């Protein structure tokens, strides 16, 4: 995919993966959205959980990975030995992002004909009162 787009990752880059999830979701009819909402853990396209993907991310030197998909990694999981959330966040301290509006970003890039830019993101601020209701790990 990177080669077909003439993209070369450099150490320190943030890898943003646009697979069209948000655009496809916005095209769903209201009843389809409601039906999807009834599924507790809907299937999601995302990165494969594999040693090859982890090696690629590590060797590329990226410092964060985000996408427009519901979950960064494919759901349901294919390989519990390589859960990307655990490897990236806990193991490497590499932030991940999910459900980013990359359609809008792509339109902005096209308008200005600029495909590199400064990127910043703020972690989700979740009140501790909500966290106390979660089961312990």
Structural write-up:
The protein is mostly helical and 137 residues long. The protein has one domain. The protein is built from 6 helices and 3 strands. Strands 1-2-3 form a 3-stranded parallel β-sheet. The termini are far apart.
How would you sum up the global shape? Answer: globular
- Arrangement of strands in the largest sheet: 1-2-3
Q: Number of domains in the coordinates? A: 1
Distance between the termini: 37 Å
Q: What class would the helix/strand composition place it in? A: mainly alpha
Query: Helicity range of the residues?
Result: 25-40%
Per DSSP E runs of 2 or more residues, the count of β-strands stands at: 3
Q: Provide the gyration radius in Å.
A: 17 Å
Q: DSSP helix count? A: 6
Strand percentage lies at: 5-15%
Q: What sequence of helices (H) and strands (E) makes up the elements?
A: EHHHEHEHH
Q: Can you summarize the main beta sheet?
A: 3 strands, parallel
Q: What is the mean pLDDT?
A: 86
Give unreliable regions as ranges.
none
List keywords for this structure.
single chain, 137 residues, mainly alpha, three-stranded parallel β-sheet, 6 helices, 3 strands
Q: In terms of topology, how is this protein built?
A:
Elements: E1 14-17, H1 21-26, H2 30-37, H3 51-60, E2 64-67, H4 84-92, E3 96-97, H5 102-112, H6 128-131
Parallel strand pairs: 1-2, 2-3
Task: Summarize the model shown.
By secondary structure, the chain is mainly alpha-helical. The protein has helices at residues 21-26, 30-37, 51-60, 84-92, 102-112, 128-131, and strands at 14-17, 64-67, 96-97.
């Amino acid at each position: 995919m990177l080669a077909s787009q003439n993209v070369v990752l450099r150490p320190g880059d943030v890898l943003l993966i646009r697979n069209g999830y948000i655009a496809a979701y916005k095209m769903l009819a209201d009843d389809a959205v409601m039906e999807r909402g009834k599924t507790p853990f809907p299937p999601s396209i995302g990165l494969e959980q594999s040693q090859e993907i982890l090696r690629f991310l590590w060797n590329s030197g990226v410092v964060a990975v985000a996408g427009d998909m519901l979950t960064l990694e494919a759901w349901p999981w294919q390989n519990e030995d390589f859960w990307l959330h655990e490897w990236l966040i806990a193991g490497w301290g590499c932030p991940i992002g999910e459900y980013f509006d990359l359609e809008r970003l792509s339109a902005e890039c096209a308008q200005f004909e600029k495909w590199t830019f400064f990127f910043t993101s703020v972690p989700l601020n979740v009140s501790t009162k909500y966290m106390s209701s979660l089961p312990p790990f």
